[in-house]
Amino acid sequence: MRDFYRAVLAFVLVVCVMPASPSAAAGRIAPEYPLLKLSPALAKALDAAAPDEQLPILVRFGAKADLPLALAGAESASRAVRGARVVAVLRAVADAAQAAPRVALAKAESEGRVSRQRWFWISNAVALRATPGAIAELAARPDVRSVALDEARQYLSDAPTPAADAIASMMARAAVIGANAVFDPPGAAGATWGISKIRADLVRRGLGVDGTGVVVANIDSGVEWTHPR
To answer: Which residues contact 100 (CB under 8 A, 6 or more apart)?
Structure first.
């Protein structure tokens, strides 16, 4: 009798932990993909993608630089020295983490399964286009932390859209101004070095665009908003 109850308990445990069917979990993309690594948008795109279709993706690797350790003992050093340390450790971690994936992706690109690779050492990631099969291989790698659809984000849905004729008129005026460009020298009234560098003075004077009524937002965890410059 005791063996019978043990058998029943084992059966119940198996049923309770059994994953949902592949079709219920993620349509056609399961079970080849480690779903926890895929963004919801990518999972949806994969479900509708053709086998040879290349999707734009962003792959992040798991290795992270220990920046506090890199800066240990350099608290009184110059900003340039501390910055050099940060750059060195970020590059070193990225070089080590990306070595094997680079080889694998080079082979996949020679086979026509991936393209447009762009590697990033600050975030330790790579942006590329890849077929569903190549994406499955990337997601299965233990050194890959996540795979997301590389997509544009629209944060202001109610932002006004200039009329086509207004855009055409501005482009025509910009072409004329560009051919006869006159710039304010750095330090002139209303033209700081940065304004002159990006030619905002030309836009302001030539097109009459001075930023009035424009809301500027910034998303950057590295901004030191109290910095005097």
So the answer is: 143
Please state, in angstroms and rounded to a whole number, the distance separating the CA atoms of residues 91 and 6: 55
Residue 54 has pLDDT above 90, yes or no: yes
pLDDT at 30: 45
Secondary-structure breakdown of the chain: helix, strand, coil percentages, each rounded to the nearest 5 = 50, 10, 40
In sequence order, the β-bridge partners of residue 57 are 128, 149
Higher pLDDT among residues 43 and 9, named by residue = 43
Core vs surface per residue 178-205: b (16+ CB within 10 A) or e = eeeeeebeeeeeebeeebbeeebbbbbb
For the chain, strand residue ranges (E) read 55-61, 114-120, 125-130, 144-149
Q: Would you give the distance in Å from CA 161 to the centre of its chain? A: 26
Beta bridge partners, 118, equal: 127
Separation of alpha carbons 37 and 34, rounded Å: 6
Please tell me the total number of residues recorded for the chain in this structure.
229
Q: Give the mean model confidence (pLDDT) for residues 43-63.
A: 93
* Domains of the chain, residue spans: 30-149, 164-207
Quote the tokens at residue 72. Answer: 């240990």
Spatial separation of the C-alpha atoms in residues 170 and 12, rounded to whole Å? 70
| pTM for this entry | 0.57
